[in-house]
Amino acid sequence: MRVLFAGTPEVALPTLEALIASEHDVVGVLTRADARKGRGRALHPSPVAAAAREAGLDLRTPTTLKGEAAADVRAWVHGLGADVAVVVAYGRLIPADLLDVPGHGWLNLHFSLLPAWRGAAPVQRAIIAGEEITGACVFRLEEGLDTGPVYGRITEAIGAGDTSGDLLERLARAGAPLVLDVLHSVEEGSARPEPQDDALATLAPMLSTADGEVRWDDPALTVDRRIRGVSPAPGAHTTYLGARFRLGPVTPVPDVTDLLPGQVRATKREVLVGTGGCAVRLGLVAPAGRSWMPADAWARGARPEAGTVLGTPPPANDDGEGMN
């Protein structure tokens, strides 16, 4: 089949690569426009843009698919003659009047077991919620948010130490052959899409920086899940002496229960922090303006005082004014 592909980040690459290597013809690629990154704010292509250019594919990077500003790219979509469009984390809404332009519509690889976790952050929200099983499915886009009929699905266990980055990588790789299986069934006419039960839907809105702030009075398992769910992005954080203090995944320590929420106990070998339940052992940390390092190495340099509590306002100066 003639396939239009739409995707942007690293997790979209396994499906794009599988399509390129398959019997299907990738006739065009849509991705987000180049973005400014780093200290120099230089423009960088998305991972999908870089892969499409390397493969010599017909690439478009519109800022929108709506209205007169998108007239050229909309005409391009119409003119491709695609039989189907495959979407993986594209990051832009497909206008309603384009949804039926490919004969078989736009098929989206979504990283949840729909109707669970409809939205932009399904993997992250599943980990934060403490789910043990998730998966990926291919469904047809329609005007509602992730509401279309499902053509196929796979399941995946969520490991006790999985971050959202770990789980997304596995689902992205497992999802690529699922997409090819669905395209095969669509092409031969054996596909049997199943409607979703809206009554079972849960929502997974995009995460903000605020979602990464650790609440130390939560139970240890909740702290653990939140940190893993927001890692690597938007990232977990707290404060140390009033400055932002980034946190990597932690390990609950069930036999340590004498620390107050946020209270630090540092030894030569480990750094423990109290929660609303047992303590957690810090892994990698990144103090303000510093790179990631093991928590015990940070503690040997910072020497946090006994009774130090993470997540509290900065101490007052001797003259009663706050720290600069």
UniProtKB/TrEMBL annotation:
GO cellular component: cytosol
Region (Disordered): 303-324
Keywords in alphabetical order: Protein biosynthesis, Transferase
Residues annotated as binding (6S)-5,6,7,8-tetrahydrofolate: S112, L113, L114, P115
Gene3D superfamilies: 3.40.50.12230
Domain Formyl transferase C-terminal span(s) in chain numbering: 207-302
Family: Belongs to the Fmt family.
Name assigned to this protein: Methionyl-tRNA formyltransferase
Protein's organism: Actinomyces johnsonii F0542
